[in-house]
Every structure is written in structure tokens, then in C-alpha cells.
């Protein structure tokens, strides 16, 4: 139990009680009068508001979140006590109470721990001796209505002593709530009987059952929250490494070791003094962030979303440093604390298993990731002195295993990978206590570096082993450059994970590609990955590609320098080092070219080939690009991006091979048409031939077979029904997007009209593919952000967008007023800072002028940009829309109305100025005289 602090100026109990008495006197003792109750309620509102304001002031002064939570709990205790006593003394006084007319007001759940966030629920148990009486029911009702009228959310139950015990046996939630029961006011003897009876009839001999249930709950919660403590918008309460994990440990500690305070776990042998201090420090930091979050948002918000992170970082005093702004430093600290919670959990589990594993073998499955591989519970590891397998997990025979040879701090991870076993909590604890053995001597030891490279390039599961190395602290100590980016977040909406987590996931994806597990998604990479000449180079490049994030200069340039310094230490040759450095330097090139350039323009392909130079480098760059994009987060990779990468590869291949491509462009287009034709088996031959001749070469290069078949059916149905405008909708649940395809007569302003209609309907376009057909029609496909979880709801929303779109294209609705209604910056984007940039370039294409814009996304932006280009009398030949979270990079290939490039300097400058105005929403500032 946590001891409540001194009043701290939160509430004057006696003065408040005196004011209540005064109100009663002023109203002649009539407490049932409406005005009397209104005055009483207002008094409590004032007390609660002033108390919370005082708690926030103290939090800003001392920065102690746990103390703030205790203060708020104390404030709530005093208010509930005042309400209860007022109820039994003035509203429902019992002159001669019977034995059943007794009541104990008990705090349970989180409130029972005597810690309360500013907007947390109030969990109360109204404890009765026997059965409910009219008096008890009335008192409880009065208390609840008063709390509800105060604007508080109250979780409550009214139960007898026996009901509490009986329900606790069958319901783990009720059992957990009563485990933390804390007396507030009323009949103290009744509360004491509950604790005694609960301990005797419920807790005794049921520790194993409770531990298993709570760990299972924790695992289910982690899965629901994304099963990573490195999500860039974490849930501070329910997420992995959050407060609920700490609370779960304390619940188990209370239950298994019969303690009421966390410090008692030292005496129980669970924590050392130092480990307990780490536990306390992590708990305080999480409470500090949570209390500030509630005060900032003025609601029970538990998610550290982007729109609160910046202001929170300011409130908590994080300042900008070279390469990292204040919000990124704040979030890095948060993730390090979440990582610390994971380490504390492992220490705790080690003690649990030692104390309860023998009597409750079922617990073991929550500590071991895989079944025990042999009938022997303990065995030595072959060819590895000092290591053993204990219940299917690797451990060490003694602490001397590390002190006698520090290389064993790396060797244990290699053995875990080789033996396909998880880690014993004792081993992880021993590793943590010996991290000081990782020094420059070990870092420069050839054998130690060889061990690390074997782990990194393992054909088993390198991602999992590297993640355990990170969580234990070994990887960050052995590779200091990696240690700099551990728990580092990038403050943008594009990246879903911290930098270190992103790199580990990328290695895992590379491993899956190499193991031929992603052939359906990445057929090209699947075909040639096994022919890569030097897989070591590829793995090291994937591991290092974002290693220099958080530095003042470009992370690609800085990362290439890091590779040049680090690779020789790891044991790579000069040639391998140069290749890794080049891959890190160019790791964004292939995605940028494929997504923002016209791949049917030969200049684009020639420029790309000048960068990659060889087929081997292009193959490695392609695989690195796939791993990088997929590791960004769920929904970032999609089939379009895969098709664009394959097209870029296919277009570059004949140039890099000196014209001797495995397949010429004509042959590839012919093969694509043949595959589509085979899927249209129910069509007659003439219709198939007509359809295949309907598209230009660029279409067949940039479209996958499934999409081409769907387009064929859409066009056929439109022709059959003589529709000028036809549409199709396809929601993607996992990717979080919805695809809308539009077939309409081609028009210079068509893309602008489509974008405007989407903006008017509140839909945000994140990608677009634009094609024209040989019969003068346009086939445009756009991807919009998904709004609903259920497909049927999302389809309904998409149909509304399509209906509006068709009306606009048919001229039945005027677009500008609709756009004006809906345009405006999204509130969520306001927290970000993105530089705006516009360039007009004639060097990127031999046919067109490329207008490239980069800046902050907002609703209706694409409509504004395309409308501006049309107003400038420019014809959009192709548009390449790329969205990176809150940031857009759009490239428009344009010509004048005669089909020529824009060469006049004054006109180019005018285009830049007008597009910048459209991008920022601000007119150009006139120079001061």
C-alpha cells in the first residue's frame, strides 16, 4: 500500500465539512431541497477543481508523476469520505442501525493502489455485511449520483462479504480488484474481515493459477496493441512496456509473495535494491507522462499521439539538440523506459520461476518461447564450455562464463540461434550485470566480430536474436553506432517504429525473402536473391541503412561514412566495405525513382542506370528497398509499389547488360498481355484483341495482372451499358487504404476534378496512377486513406465519394464550392514541421518539364495543385503522387498546350511561385522596400 502524502494544499477537509454544515443550516436542515443539493454539488465541484489545479501545479514544480497520482487519490478519498458522511449524517441518518445497516466504502482496482491519474475511473466497492437494505441502497445511490454529477466516471459494485469471496474464486477480474482493495471510510471492521477471508479462502494455494492468468492477459493485451514497445504512438497504459505491465508485476508480487508494498519485494528476494530503484524510477516516469497527458488533453487519454507529443515534450522540459528536436528526445526517453520495463519483467519472471516453477510447471510455458526439445530438463551445450540448456532455454553455468571470456556475451546469442532455444531469465539477468565487460578490446576482437556477423547473417531467425541482443543492451554496447539509435523515434507519421526496431524488422524481412517465404509478394527478388554473390554485404547494408538517423547531415550520407569506418572493424574486406557504403548511400534511390518518376521516359531509366552501374548492385538495392519499405510499418507496402519496382528493374536491365536483357521491353509487354488474355478465357477472341490494343505500352509496364483483369471487366461493362463514366471500389483492410478506379473521357483537368471531388467528400488521396487509352479515355486509379474498420462501412463511404465524383464528371455538380467547404489543414498535421519546396526541372525528362512539390499534406491539396497547373495552361502528361505520412512528394510531368517543354525562365519562375502558393496556402510575400 502506498502511504498518502500530507495534504499539500489539495483540500481542507474540516473547512469543507464546516461549509456543508453551514449550507444545511441556511436551508433549515432540508437536505432534500433541490437548491440545497445544487449548492452542495457546486461546493464539491469547486473543491475538486481547485484540488486538481493544485496537483497540476505541484507536478510542474517537482516533476514527480507518482506523487501526483497519490495526491489525486488522496483528494478523491477526502471527497468521497465527505459525501459518505454527509449522506449518513444528514440525508439518510440511521438512529439505531441494525447489524445489517453497516457499510464499508472501499477503493479497488487502480484506485485501490492509491494512485489516480487526473481523469482515471473511480473504482469503488460498497461492502455490506449480509444483504442489501433500503438504507444501504439509498446511501450508495446518493454517493454515486453525487460523483456522476461531478463529472466523474465511476466503476462500482455493491456486494456482501460472502459474495466478494465467492465471485473472486471464479472471476479473475474481480479477484484482481479485491487484491488491491483499500479502505476509504465506513465500517473498518467489515473491510478487515474481507481482507482476512479473501486471503484465507481465495489467495491461499492459488498463486500458480493467478500468475498464469495474468501473464496470459498480458500477452493478449500486447498482441492487441501491436506487440511492440517501439510503436511511435504508444499507449502509455496498455502498450508493451507501459504502466499495465508494471501493474501486472505488482499484482503478481502481491498475490504470490503476500506483499502490500513494492519495496517488500526486496525482502522477498525478487529484486535487489538497485533493481527495485530501477522499477521505481520507470514507474514514476510513466506516471509523470500519464498525468501530464491527462492534464494537457483534459480527458482520460492514454495514447501518446503525434498531436500531443510536441507539447508534452515542452511541458517536461526536453530541448532541441543537434540532429534531434525536443519531441524526439522525449520519445527516446520514453522508449528507453519501456525497454527498462521489459528488463524488469525478465528479472521478475526469473524469481517467479525459481519460486513457483517446480510446484506449477504450467507457468513455464509463459517464459519459454518454444517447447523443450528433449526429454532432459538440463543439459550442457555441445562444443560450448560454460553454457547449458535449462528447460528448453539457454543459460550459463555461472557468472564466470562471462568474466572469464567476455566474447561469451555474444556467443550465448549465437548458441541460442544455433540450438533454436529461447533465453533463461537468469541468463538475461547475468548478461545485464556484465555489460561493463563490453569495451574497446572486445569491440576490436576479430573473433567477437566474426560471432556477430554469424548472428546477423544466420539462416535461422536473425531478427529475433538481434532483438534480444538489443533488449539486453549487448548490441548497443558492442556496436555503439547502433546504440545511438536505440529507442530513437522519428517525429513523423510515416515511420511506425523506432529506428532500431525498423532496422531489426528490415533484417527479418531480408531473411524471409532469402528463405523463399515471400515469393507471392516479391517474385522478382525471390527469383534472384539466392544468386546474390555476397549475402554478407547485403545483410550488413540492411542492418546499417538507417544507422545515422538523428544526425545533422543527411542520414544516407552520414550512414555511408559510418559503414566505411565500421565495416573493417567487423572484418569486411575493402571491396565489401565500399559496396556496403554505396548501398547505404543510395538506399532511398530506387524507391524515389520508381514512385516519383515516369518510368516510360528513357531519360529516367538512363539516369538511374548511371547511379546503379551494375546488375549486382541493382539486385541488392532492390532487395534492400523492399526490406526498407516493408519494415516502415503495416500498410506502407502495397502491390503498386512492388509493380513499380519491378518495372524500374525491367527497364534498367537491358541497359546494364549492354542490351542483352533476358527479356526485351516488347517481349515483356507481350508476355503481360498473354497472361491477361489467359485470364479472360470467357471473352471471345475479337474482344480480347480489342482490349489488349486499348492500352499504351506504359500501362502494361506499370500494371499487375490482377489489376489489368479488373480494369478489363470494368471497361467491358461500361461499353456494354454505354456508360461515359464508370467506377470500381476495392477496400484493403490490412493496408488501411481504399482503391477507387475511374474510367472517363480524357480531359486536361480530369485529375484536378477527381482530386477536387475526393477533397469535397473528405477523402485524402495518398497515391494515384494515371493512364490514357488509345480511344481517348482516361483510366485513373487513386488510393485514399481508409476511414472505417469494417469493409461494408468503408464501401458505403467510398460509394458516397464515387457518387459525388460521377456527378462532377457529368457536369451535374459544380466543384469549387464543394472544395471550399472541405479544404483546410488537418488538425493532426498541425504539430509537424515540414519545409515546402517547389522545383521546375527540364533535366529529368526529354519530353516533359517535371514540376516537383514537397511539403505538408492537407485535405484537398492534390486538387489545389492540379487545378493550379491547369490554370497555368499546362497539360499533365503523368502524375506521380507519393505520401510519407504527413509529407507529400508529388511530381507532375507537364507540357504547354502545344506539347512542348517549358523553357522560358519567366514562365518557369511563375510556375514555381504559383505552385508554392498552392502548396502552402499562402500568397507570395512582396519584398519590403
TrEMBL record:
Q: Which residues form the ACT domain?
A: 739-816, 850-929
What Enzyme Commission number(s) apply to this enzyme?
2.7.7.59, 3.1.4.-
Q: Look up the record and name the cofactor or cofactors this protein needs.
A: Mg(2+)
Reactions it catalyzes: [protein-PII]-uridylyl-L-tyrosine + H2O = [protein-PII]-L-tyrosine + UMP + H(+); [protein-PII]-L-tyrosine + UTP = [protein-PII]-uridylyl-L-tyrosine + diphosphate
Gene Ontology biological process terms in this record: regulation of nitrogen utilization
**Pfam families, from UniProt?**
ACT (PF01842), ACT_ACR9_3rd (PF24931), GlnD_UR_UTase (PF08335), HD (PF01966)
Q: Which SMART domains match?
A: HDc (SM00471)
Domain HD, by residue range, is 499-621
Activity regulation, per record: Uridylyltransferase (UTase) activity is inhibited by glutamine, while glutamine activates uridylyl-removing (UR) activity.
Query: Which Gene3D superfamilies does this entry report, sorted A to Z?
Result: Beta Polymerase, domain 2 (3.30.460.10), cca-adding enzyme, domain 2 (1.10.3090.10)
Which molecular function GO terms apply here? Answer: [protein-PII] uridylyltransferase activity; phosphoric diester hydrolase activity
What are the alphabetically sorted keywords of the record? Hydrolase, Magnesium, Multifunctional enzyme, Nucleotidyltransferase, Repeat, Transferase
Region Uridylyltransferase: start-end pairs: 1-381
What family does the Swiss-Prot or TrEMBL record give for this protein?
A: Belongs to the GlnD family.
Protein task? Modifies, by uridylylation and deuridylylation, the PII regulatory proteins (GlnB and homologs), in response to the nitrogen status of the cell that GlnD senses through the glutamine level. Under low glutamine levels, catalyzes the conversion of the PII proteins and UTP to PII-UMP and PPi, while under higher glutamine levels, GlnD hydrolyzes PII-UMP to PII and UMP (deuridylylation). Thus, controls uridylylation state and activity of the PII proteins, and plays an important role in the regulation of nitrogen metabolism.
What PANTHER family does the entry give? BIFUNCTIONAL URIDYLYLTRANSFERASE/URIDYLYL-REMOVING ENZYME, BIFUNCTIONAL URIDYLYLTRANSFERASE_URIDYLYL-REMOVING ENZYME
Q: What is known of its domains?
A: Has four distinct domains: an N-terminal nucleotidyltransferase (NT) domain responsible for UTase activity, a central HD domain that encodes UR activity, and two C-terminal ACT domains that seem to have a role in glutamine sensing.
Which protein is depicted? Bifunctional uridylyltransferase/uridylyl-removing enzyme
**Which species does the entry assign this protein to?**
Cohaesibacter marisflavi
**Which gene is the coding source of this polypeptide chain?**
glnD
Amino acid at each position: 500500500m502506498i502511504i498518502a502524502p500530507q495534504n499539500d494544499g489539495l483540500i481542507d477537509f474540516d473547512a469543507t465539512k464546516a461549509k456543508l454544515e453551514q449550507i444545511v443550516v441556511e436551508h433549515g436542515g432540508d437536505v432534500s431541497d433541490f437548491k440545497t443539493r445544487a449548492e452542495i454539488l457546486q461546493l464539491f465541484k469547486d473543491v475538486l477543481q481547485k484540488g486538481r489545479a493544485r496537483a497540476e501545479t505541484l507536478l510542474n514544480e517537482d516533476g514527480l508523476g507518482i506523487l501526483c497520482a497519490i495526491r489525486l487519490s488522496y483528494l478523491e478519498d477526502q471527497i468521497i469520505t465527505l459525501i459518505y458522511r454527509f449522506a449518513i449524517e444528514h440525508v439518510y441518518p440511521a438512529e439505531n442501525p441494525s447489524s445489517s445497516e453497516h457499510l464499508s466504502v472501499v477503493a479497488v482496482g487502480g484506485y485501490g493502489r492509491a494512485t489516480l491519474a487526473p481523469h482515471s475511473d473511480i473504482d469503488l466497492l460498497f461492502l455490506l455485511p449480509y444483504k442489501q437494505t433500503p438504507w444501504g441502497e439509498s446511501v450508495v445511490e446518493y454517493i454515486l449520483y453525487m460523483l456522476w454529477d461531478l463529472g466523474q466516471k465511476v466503476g462500482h459494485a455493491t456486494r456482501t462479504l460472502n459474495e466478494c469471496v465467492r465471485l473472486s474464486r471464479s472471476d479473475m477480474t474481480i479477484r484482481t480488484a479485491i487484491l488491491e482493495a483499500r479502505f476509504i471510510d465506513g465500517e473498518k471492521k467489515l473491510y478487515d474481515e474481507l481482507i482476512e477471508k479473501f486471503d484465507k479462502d481465495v489467495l491461499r494455494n492459488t498463486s500458480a493459477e493467478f500468475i498464469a492468468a495474468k501473464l496470459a492477459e498480458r500477452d493478449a493485451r500486447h498482441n492487441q496493441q501491436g506487440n511492440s514497445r517501439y510503436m511511435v504512438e504508444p499507449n502509455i497504459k496498455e502498450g508493451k512496456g507501459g504502466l499495465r505491465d508494471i501493474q501486472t508485476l505488482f499484482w503478481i508480487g502481491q498475490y504470490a509473495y503476500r506483499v502490500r508494498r513494492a519495496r517488500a519485494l526486496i525482502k522477498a528476494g525478487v529484486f535487489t535494491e538497485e533493481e527495485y530503484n530501477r522499477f521505481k524510477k520507470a514507474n514514476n516516469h510513466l506516471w509523470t507522462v500519464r498525468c501530464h497527458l491527462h492534464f494537457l488533453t483534459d480527458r482520460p487519454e492514454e495514447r501518446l499521439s503525434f498531436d500531443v507529443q510536441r507539447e508534452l515534450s515542452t511541458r517536461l522540459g526536453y530541448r532541441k539538440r543537434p540532429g534531434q528536436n525536443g519531441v524526439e528526445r522525449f520519445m527516446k526517453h520514453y522508449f528507453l523506459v519501456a525497454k527498462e520495463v521489459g528488463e524488469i519483467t525478465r528479472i521478475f519472471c526469473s524469481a517467479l520461476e525459481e519460486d513457483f516453477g517446480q510446484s506449477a510447471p504450467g507457468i513455464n510455458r509463459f517464459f519459454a518461447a518454444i517447447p523443450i526439445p528433449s526429454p532432459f530438463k538440463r543439459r550442457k551445450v555441445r562444443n560450448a564450455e560454460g553454457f547449458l540448456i535449462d528447460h528448453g532455454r539457454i543459460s550459463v553455468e555461472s557468472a564466470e562464463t562471462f568474466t572469464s571470456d567476455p566474447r561469451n556475451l555474444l556467443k550465448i546469442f549465437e548458441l541460442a540461434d544455433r540450438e533454436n532455444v529461447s533465453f533463461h531469465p537468469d541468463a538475461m539477468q547475468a548478461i545485464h550485470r556484465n555489460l561493463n565487460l563490453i569495451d574497446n578490446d572486445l569491440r576490436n576482437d576479430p573473433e567477437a566480430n566474426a560471432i556477430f556477423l554469424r548472428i546477423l547473417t544466420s539462416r535461422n531467425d536473425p531478427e529475433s536474436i538481434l532483438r534480444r541482443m538489443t533488449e539486453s543492451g549487448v548490441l548497443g554496447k558492442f556496436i555503439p553506432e547502433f546504440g545511438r539509435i536505440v529507442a530513437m523515434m522519428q517525429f513523423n507519421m510515416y515511420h511506425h517504429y523506432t529506428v532500431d526496431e525498423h532496422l531489426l524488422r528490415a533484417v527479418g524481412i531480408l531473411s524471409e525473402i532469402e528463405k523463399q517465404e515471400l515469393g507471392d509478394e516479391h517474385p522478382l527478388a525471390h527469383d534472384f536473391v539466392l544468386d546474390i554473390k555476397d549475402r554478407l554485404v547485403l545483410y550488413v547494408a540492411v542492418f546499417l541503412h538507417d544507422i545515422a538517423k538523428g544526425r545533422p547531415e543527411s542520414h544516407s550520407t552520414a550512414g555511408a561514412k559510418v559503414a566505411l569506418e565500421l565495416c573493417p572493424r567487423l572484418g569486411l574486406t575493402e571491396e565489401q566495405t565500399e559496396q556496403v557504403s554505396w548501398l547505404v548511400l543510395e538506399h532511398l534511390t530506387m524507391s524515389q525513382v520508381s514512385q516519383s518518376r515516369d518510368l516510360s521516359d528513357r531519360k529516367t531509366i538512363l539516369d538511374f542506370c548511371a547511379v546503379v552501374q551494375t546488375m549486382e548492385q541493382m539486385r541488392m538495392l532492390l532487395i534492400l528497398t523492399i526490406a526498407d519499405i516493408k519494415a516502415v510499418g503495416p500498410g506502407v507496402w502495397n502491390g503498386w509499389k512492388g509493380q513499380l519496382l519491378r518495372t524500374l528493374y525491367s527497364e534498367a536491365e537491358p541497359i546494364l547488360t549492354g542490351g542483352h536483357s533476358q527479356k526485351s521491353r516488347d517481349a515483356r509487354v507481350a508476355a503481360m498481355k498473354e497472361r491477361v488474355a489467359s485470364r479472360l478465357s470467357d471473352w471471345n477472341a475479337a474482344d480480347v484483341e480489342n482490349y489488349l490494343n486499348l492500352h499504351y505500352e506504359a500501362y502494361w509496364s506499370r500494371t499487375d495482372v490482377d489489376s489489368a483483369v479488373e480494369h478489363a471487366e470494368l471497361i467491358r461493362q461500361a461499353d456494354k451499358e454505354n456508360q461515359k463514366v464508370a467506377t470500381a471500389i476495392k477496400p484493403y483492410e490490412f493496408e488501411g487504404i481504399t482503391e477507387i478506379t475511374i474510367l472517363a473521357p480524357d480531359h486536361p483537368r480530369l485529375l484536378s476534378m477527381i482530386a477536387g471531388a475526393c477533397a469535397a467528400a473528405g477523402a485524402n488521396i495518398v497515391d494515384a496512377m494515371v493512364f490514357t487509352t488509345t480511344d481517348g479515355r482516361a483510366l485513373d486509379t487513386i488510393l485514399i486513406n481508409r476511414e472505417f474498420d469494417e469493409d461494408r462501412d468503408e464501401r458505403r463511404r467510398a460509394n458516397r465519394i464515387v457518387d459525388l465524383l460521377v456527378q462532377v464528371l457529368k457536369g451535374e455538380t459544380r466543384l469549387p464550392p464543394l472544395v471550399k467547404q472541405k479544404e483546410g489543414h488537418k488538425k493532426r498535421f498541425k504539430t509537424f514541421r515540414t519545409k515546402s519546396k517547389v522545383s521546375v526541372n527540364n533535366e529529368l525528362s526529354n519530353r516533359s518539364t517535371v514540376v516537383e512539390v514537397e511539403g505538408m499534406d492537407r485535405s484537398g491539396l492534390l486538387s489545389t495543385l492540379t487545378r493550379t497547373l491547369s490554370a497555368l495552361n499546362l497539360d499533365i502528361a503523368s502524375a506521380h503522387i507519393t505520401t510519407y505520412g504527413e509529407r507529400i512528394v508529388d511530381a507532375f510531368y507537364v507540357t504547354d498546350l502545344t506539347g512542348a517543354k517549358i523553357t522560358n525562365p519567366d514562365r518557369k519562375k511563375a510556375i514555381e511561385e504559383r505552385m508554392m502558393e498552392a502548396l502552402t496556402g499562402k500568397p507570395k510575400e512582396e519584398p519590403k522596400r
